[in-house]
């Protein structure tokens, strides 16, 4: 919660010395905190160490009324029209950890545990809700409305890891578009949301919405009273009412990381750029960039959303673990986007262990070509200091070239033709693999 960041720095540092948490962080900066008239969004996806994350583009589509949609575990009603999306997702599931759509909407999620019990019954994963929100929302607020409607109807639940031992959590979300951002926090089918119009905001694995609630589940306060969590008197703080009295270790560990992220954003307020958010996502001292025995940052994303609708939104993805040793590659929505097969994992169809009940009784190799090349490069970095430094420099040069090209496009200095933009992410991934080899 926000007031936790007001404690003495020494106490927070003591929390940072605990074992690395299995968790994520998500950030947004809006004018006047940004250096330009743009909203900047960023997220690290911290997942099981050996999990593969892929980057997938899905075009807009139309469907007949009444069609069913199979998500990771359950079916829901399909929308009659879905927006084009770019997703960074664990390769075994349907949803996504983070992504963007053609209208400049970005969404990321984090796991939380609240007084509302989590159940192992399969429903929608928070990651399914990320994708559903992107496919159905032409603005951050519209995406929020889509997510909350689905949450209330279908609930959230089911294992969030590709393992036979269930790992279940509820979710918080950060949604952003060209003009505003929303924090959405959930407890079972209940939720509260906060609109962010300016400045900075970050979320981690804890509830952070206090009394500043912009929208909420119609029965939220009545439910809290019925459970004896709130007397009904005085102000209603979502985080105070729904947070567990004794937090799980991963949520306790997230407090220091949340505060560190908040401080990093505030430190650069008024001059935050895409590079600023990339640097924050690469910050290992704070624990925001995780590389532990069990969990690590398996994928990262940064987006710049200009407030001028004539300018394109630019989305950067790593598609590989550890952003401090990965390349952020740009993507722009245009017609006829070239599929980036080298950043997509193989498909196993009905033979996939995720599709069989009981689930997760075996494992398959989900590594895509970029992931394999990157892992070989990391091995070289660790075994040969000289070659590793050269490779790291090459990676930095590749990223810098992409950033400079995007800056010129956003400044109106250069114009790429539609075919070049359609191949942008494809060409960047292909170039990166060639350098690794």
Task: Give the overall average pLDDT.
Answer: 93
Number of strands: 18
Portion of residues within helices:
25-40%
Number of domains: 1
Oligomer: single chain
**Which architecture would the CATH scheme give at its second level?**
4-Layer Sandwich
Topology-level CATH name? Penicillin V Acylase, Chain A
Strand order across the biggest sheet? 3-8-9-10-11-12-13-15
What structural category arises from helix and sheet content? alpha+beta
Please describe the biggest sheet, giving its number of strands, its sense, and whether it closes into a barrel. 8 strands, antiparallel
Give the termini distance in whole angstroms.
Answer: 46 Å
Order of SSEs, N→C? HEEEEEEEEEEHHEEEEEHHHHEEEHHHH
Taking pLDDT < 50 over at least 5 consecutive residues as the criterion, the unreliable ranges are 8-21
Overall CATH class: Alpha Beta
Q: How would you describe the shape?
A: globular
CATH superfamily: Penicillin V Acylase, Chain A
Radius of gyration: 21 Å
Count up the helices.
Answer: 11
Strand content of the residues, in percent? 15-25%
Describe this structure in words.
- This is Secernin-2.
- InterPro entries: Peptidase_C69 (IPR005322).
- Keywords: Coiled coil.
- This protein has helices spanning about 10-15, 125-135, 140-155, 220-225, 240, 250-265, 275-280, 370-385, 385-410, 420, 425-435; strands spanning about 25-30, 40-50, 55-60, 60, 70, 75, 80, 85-90, 100, 105-110, 170-175, 180-185, 190-195, 200-205, 215, 295-305, 315, 330.
- It has about 425 residues and is an alpha+beta fold.
- The protein has one domain (about 1-435): Penicillin V Acylase, Chain A (4-Layer Sandwich).
- A hairpin with a 2-residue loop joins strand 12 and strand 13.
- Helix 1 packs across helix 6 (about 250-265), helix 8 (about 370-385) packs across helix 9 (about 385-410) and helix 8 runs parallel beside helix 11 (about 425-435).
- The longest helix has 26 residues, at about 385-410.
